[in-house]
Amino acid sequence: MVEHVDIVDENDNVIRSAAWEEMMSKSLLHRSANIIVFNSKGEIFVHRRQKNLMLYPGLYDVKFGGSVRAGESYEEAAKRELLEEANIKNAELEFLFTSKFRSKDNNVNRKVFKCTHDNKITLDKEEVFDGKFMKIDEIKKLQKNKKLSPSAESVFEEFLKR
Question: 134 and 47 in contact (C-beta within 8 Å)?
Fold first, then answer.
């Protein structure tokens, strides 16, 4: 089954839908749902992306998430992505902020959520190499050493401003 996503304008209005492959190959503007997972100590789960991924292979990420499917809400996509990538079920999401990310490879209007999770995280090994909870200062070191994906860095920067 071909996955379709909504292609949107700068104001997040749906223009049309497109196959995920077309959206990626043409770097079309689309919606993305991102989730920062905290534990009760206030640490953030950081994971390393698999080396075979199209976007940002081998770099670290401070969020789970991905493209919002055609007709899906941001929150529905966030819950689906958490289940697919981290096996986190029935997460209580809290909306954090809306932002835009533009690059030659990835153009998204995104909504960023957070959730708290203290149980085991079972990573999707097709997308994620490994991961662990980290303190903010540890993540800043990854950022300083250019180990965060550009998308993760922009979410992390926006999060730190709040």
Answer: no
